[in-house]
């Protein structure tokens, strides 16, 4: 629908010069004008699918009316813009020259042929080159966006793998915690089963409880074993290690790291605690990898509804690394872990240097859905901004021209309305008439109005009834000499 409206508007714009000029010359009948306008509309209609055919139609219409040449630059531009190959357009222009040259040379002569050739070059070939350049530019832009989308898909696939790996780690953490608790339950149930103070019925119930706990532990181990990534090394950290022990082990390994608590000190919810531990663990790993030897500060602030974990490292003492370290998968894993906990994570370089990771973990929240910005969204945003800029670039000159043109028309109307003298100013015998005679070079004497010496007015003898011919505002006025002196 939008393309149809655009084609109709283009047809109307191209047909206006022909329709407005036709009443002035009437060089051909009305039916031929209507047929030509219809052919121009057909050319515009097929220009999207058959652009070269629309060019041939417009060139043929210029033989009917020269005003159709105003359509030639537009159609030539569309040929270059809408055709993917150069060869058909080149053959088309050569065919136009080959067909039109004998006709023009025989019918109009060499001078007219040179004029027509110049029109074809400047109104046909140059706009086609502009359209061709525009098409190549948009093809390059589209190829760039496609390449960006392909890279984004690859990065998204890698990020999905990291997220799956992070979820596997969460499952392993749950296995460690739940397996430990189920083992304690089985151990206590076994002790009750061997207690001699219990009767046979209670010892049987304790035995069933011990067996159920053991079976649950075994099923949990099998499930986590299926989810476990065999490429990763087996975990060597202690089960249920907290952040303080993690920081202590980092200090023992030689890192300059400090731990600070703000707010109430107490156990966090299990999901929040494991997410905070994972953030600190990955942030310390990244600090050791990207800024070796830099001081690291870990700050945990516990609020009323959420806990905030901040890990910040200073700039490396030896300066930036000579080559960038590949990675950023750790940030993806941290983001996924925090998201599954219902929190948010930000990682950036502060103005003072170094790197800072801040995770906000609410105590009770559902996992937030991932909302990554895709290249398609960015492309739409860029297209909207470019469209707005084009509209503004077109609207500003139009508005300025409208203001200037309106002001000029208003001034012209005012001057025209106030530059015509009323008819009473030219009435015979009026004061304005005498003023006109005096200003035109006549003077009043005793016998009447006579020309001043040196003027072109003619006068008869003053003794008889002399007349004086006086020029006022480009017209000849005759003053009768029968007027007597006062």
Averaged pLDDT: 74
User: What would you call the structural class?
Assistant: alpha+beta
- Major sheet summary line: 5 strands, mixed
- Give the strand content: 5-15%
Count of all domains: 5
Strand order, main sheet: write it out. 1-2-3-5-4
Cα separation of the termini: 88 Å
List the total number of helices: 12
Question: Can you tell me the residue ranges where pLDDT is under 50 for at least 5 consecutive residues?
Answer: 455-486
Helix content: 55-70%
**Order of secondary-structure elements:** HHHHHHHHEHEEHEEHHEEEE
The tally of strands reads 9
CA-based shape: elongated
How big is the Rg?
48 Å
Question: How would you sum up this structure, described in words?
Answer:
This protein is α+β, with helices and mostly antiparallel strands and 486 residues long. It has five domains: 2-150, no CATH class; 162-227; 243-319 and 327-372, Heat Shock Protein 90, CATH 3.30.565; 378-420; 424-480, no CATH class. It is 60% helix and 11% strand. The protein is built from twelve helices and nine strands. It has helices at residues 2-25, 30-46, 51-62, 72-82, 87-107, 110-193, 200-227, 243-252, 270-290, 329-340, 375-418, 431-439, and strands at residues 257-263, 296-302, 306-313, 344-348, 355-362, 442-445, 448-451, 467-472, 475-480. The strands form three sheets. A five-stranded mixed β-sheet has the order 1-2-3-5-4, with helices on one face. A two-stranded antiparallel sheet has the order 6-7. Strand 2 (296-302) and strand 3 (306-313) form a beta hairpin. Helix 1 (2-25) runs antiparallel to helix 2 (30-46), helix 4 runs parallel beside helix 6 (110-193) and helix 6 crosses helix 10. It is elongated and about 130 Å long. It comes from Phytohabitans maris. It catalyses: ATP + protein L-histidine = ADP + protein N-phospho-L-histidine. Residues 166-231 form the Signal transduction histidine kinase subgroup 3 dimerisation and phosphoacceptor domain. Keywords: ATP-binding, Kinase, Membrane, Nucleotide-binding, Phosphoprotein, Transferase, Transmembrane, Transmembrane helix, Two-component regulatory system. GO terms for molecular function: kinase activity.
């Amino acid at each position: 629908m939008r393309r149809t409206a655009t084609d109709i508007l283009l047809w109307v714009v191209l047909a206006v010069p022909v329709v407005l000029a036709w009443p002035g010359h009437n060089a051909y009948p009305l039916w031929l004008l209507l047929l030509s306008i219809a052919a121009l509309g057909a050319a515009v209609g097929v220009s999207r699918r058959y652009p070269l055919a629309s060019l041939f139609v417009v060139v043929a219409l210029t033989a009917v009316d020269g005003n159709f040449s105003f359509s030639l630059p537009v159609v030539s531009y569309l040929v270059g813009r809408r055709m993917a190959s150069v060869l058909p357009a080149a053959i088309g222009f050569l065919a136009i020259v080959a067909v039109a040259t004998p006709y023009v040379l025989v019918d109009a002569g060499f001078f007219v042929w040179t004029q027509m050739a110049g029109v074809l070059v400047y109104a046909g070939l140059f706009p086609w080159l502009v359209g061709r350049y525009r098409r190549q530019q948009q093809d390059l832009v589209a190829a760039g966006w496609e390449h960006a989308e392909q890279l984004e898909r690859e990065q998204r696939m890698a990020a999905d793998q990291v997220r799956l790996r992070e979820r596997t780690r969460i499952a392993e953490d749950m296995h460690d915690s739940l397996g430990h608790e189920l083992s304690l339950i089985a151990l206590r149930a076994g002790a009750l089963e061997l207690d001699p103070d219990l009767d046979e019925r209670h010892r049987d119930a304790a035995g069933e409880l011990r067996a159920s706990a053991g079976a649950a532990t075994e099923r949990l181990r099998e499930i986590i074993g299926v989810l476990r990534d065999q490429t990763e090394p087996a975990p060597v950290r202690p089960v249920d290690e907290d952040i303080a022990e993690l920081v202590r082990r980092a200090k023992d390994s030689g890192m300059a790291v400090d731990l600070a608590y703000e707010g109430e000190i107490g156990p966090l919810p299990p999901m929040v605690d494991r997410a905070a531990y994972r953030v600190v663990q990955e942030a310390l790993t990244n600090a050791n990898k990207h800024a070796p030897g830099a001081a690291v500060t870990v700050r945990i602030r516990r609020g009323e509804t959420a806990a905030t974990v901040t890990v910040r490292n200073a700039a490396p003492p030896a300066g930036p690394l000579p080559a960038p370290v590949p990675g950023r998968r750790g940030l993806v894993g941290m983001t996924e872990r925090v998201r599954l906990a219902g929190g948010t994570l930000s990682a950036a370089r502060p103005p003072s240097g170094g790197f800072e990771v801040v995770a906000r973990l609410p105590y009770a929240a559902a996992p937030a859905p991932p909302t990554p910005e895709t290249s398609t969204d960015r492309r739409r945003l860029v297209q909207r901004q470019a469209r707005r800029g084009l509209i503004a670039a077109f609207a500003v000159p139009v508005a300025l021209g409208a203001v200037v043109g309106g002001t000029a028309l208003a001034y012209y109307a005012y001057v025209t309305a106030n530059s015509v003298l009323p008819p009473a100013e030219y009435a015979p015998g009026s004061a304005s008439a005498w003023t006109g005679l005096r200003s035109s070079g006549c003077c009043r004497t005793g016998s009447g109005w006579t020309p001043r010496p040196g003027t072109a007015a003619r006068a008869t003898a003053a003794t008889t009834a002399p007349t004086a011919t006086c020029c006022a505002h480009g017209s000849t006025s005759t003053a009768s000499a029968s007027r007597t002196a006062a």
